[in-house]
Amino acid sequence: xxxxxxxxxxxxxxxxxxxxxxxxxxxxxxxxxxxxDRFLDEVAEAGYTWIELGPYGYLPTDPARLRDExxxxxxxxxxxTVFTGLHRGEAxxxxxxxxxxxxxxxxREAGAGYLVAIPAFWRDDKxxxxxxxxxxxxxxxxxxSRLTERLAHRVRxxxxxxxxxxxxxxxxVDTEEHVVRLLDxxxxxxxxxxxxxxxxxxxxxxxVRLIETYxxxxxxxxxxxxxxxxxxxxxxxxLPFGPAVAQGVMCEPPLGVPALEPVLAAARPLGVDxxxxxxxxxYPCPPDRPLPVxxxxxxxxxxxxxx
Length: 307
Prior knowledge:
single chain, 16% strand
């Protein structure tokens, strides 16, 4: 019997932000990308107050300078990002940890609380060269789950950060089957989910259903959409992710899928503070394109939250 006087869990406090990705930034240094100072100026001008670090080395890596550059623009950092290949087992652990520790230290010094961990690509995201089998063996899945837990535990103990795993196109954690498998084989107290709505839709997943089923594992959101027509061409041609992005597979909301208002509505009742970071993959893109898109997207998301 339902008791009407039972207290309801508080609604999640959704903190909207953006990231270098939405300015066409994929690499620490690339002639096709805008400079880091322009990114910081424009993300603040677009009305965001939260950002991610993006690829290590794009923003200043000196903690004092990074804090100064972000603070004087009214910006705060929510997370850093690492790519990992933990399915390869113990042989890659030390090398992986050396990279993770470097990023985690800067992330902590920037005042952020999250480390976004993206699994390694099975094919090169620029050239399409196949690097590994598309499917992991049972042994590789065991290594992935076990070492992801070890990574999350060590990151928490040494840097005080929460690790959120980011399913990503052209990695071994992409489809609903693979995402659920990782969640079901890892400790929920250690390993949380960074749900990227665009990547999940790209790989055939339903973000709302995932939130409704695994909401207690949701630690972080990346908001983006895919263009269904472009995605159909990408799938028909089996294009790698990089060329797909160059063709515009990730599009400006609300022009694609999934609809973001139901995603936010599904996340709000979870009763946790949650970052919702806009990440519209646009590499490469004209330098004057990101700012107007960022303004419109922020206004759209704010309208969903105010509604």
